[in-house]
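WARN retry 2 of 3 for item q-0093 after timeout on previous attempt; input resubmitted unchanged.
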Amino acid sequence: MCARHQEGSLHLLSPARTPSPRPLRKLALLSDWFLPRQGGIESQMHDLALHLTLAGYEVHVITPIPGPTQMSGFRVHRLHAARMPLFGFVYTPRPFRTLADLLRRERYEVVHCHASYIAPMAFGGTYVSQRLGLPTVITFHSVLAHFAHVLAASNHWLHWSDWPVLFSGVSQVVNHALEPLVKPKPVYMLPNAIDLSFWQQAAPSAPSPREVVLITVTRFSPRKRVAALLKLVAALRPRLPGITLKLLIVGDGPLRPAIEYMVAALGLSDVVILLGYQPRAKIREWFTRAHIFVSACAIESFGLAALEARTAGLPVVARTSGVVQFIRHGQEGLLAHTDAELAYQLHTLITDRQLRKTIAEHNRTTQPAFGWDSVLPQHLSLYRTAMEITHA
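OK item q-0093 returned
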């Protein structure tokens, strides 16, 4: 606690003089990324805003991404800003002046900033919000990895870990990297969530002795390692005599031309089907045609697509990362620490029909603890904690 707060604690206030915090009614969710751009943080921001709106709160989303100003019953403020070509993040101070005016005018009770590993809007928005004295929460959605060194260096000059802000992450993997940067402050858990009932409506695909269909839902970006998955499938194919292998890839992104070229170069044109972007209802339908969900991403912060697939009843094969929160090895799927081990686990699940059936049955008859009914109260609790700290 800073010296100013310590001094204030010496003056005991009577209950009549203690200021009452404002009720929680109006919230701002701020992020560098939002719909119509597609990705995990974009869909999670939308769903959080939607469920807060359905719970009776007034929610505004603030983002520099162009698009509609009304979505699903909540308002979206699209800040006009120059964005870096190819990468898309803001790089000029102009949107932060606009943001400060917006925050003053709208008088939000809480500002919740959502950051990925490169997020100038989220970090700058956190600075602006706390400087205006607004209760502020920042949630990290990405594994920091080598970017943790950049944050540590910036903290040396900006002292952002001392800001009166609540820090949080979406998984244990994220929080573990964040904790050394902000200690002795706590890092709270604000996990992602999905509509469990929606994904549980997926009808299971009957196991086939001669064909196994793999599926992945991902963004075509370097961190998602779609190329590594293609190489893995190409290496597995000769080791599966009598089994026809198919790989459905749902998603899009800047690396799509390179992936298309690689599919042809590896001789996988008859194995891989690139489905492009698909709405959720179609993804659920594709899940019913698959037998295994697979991901080669080595630094997954959470794994929303894997959670959706597991809830739909698919066994999951993935690298050990954020998915460990809802995938236990041998129960909801198989986990691997390396690409070689990932190939081994995938081969095991492809060739062992009984194991595949057992895991699928377990996933269909159990429910993960990451539905909005349980996760939304965690958000609201942290918002109220931020308000109490700010108004103390």
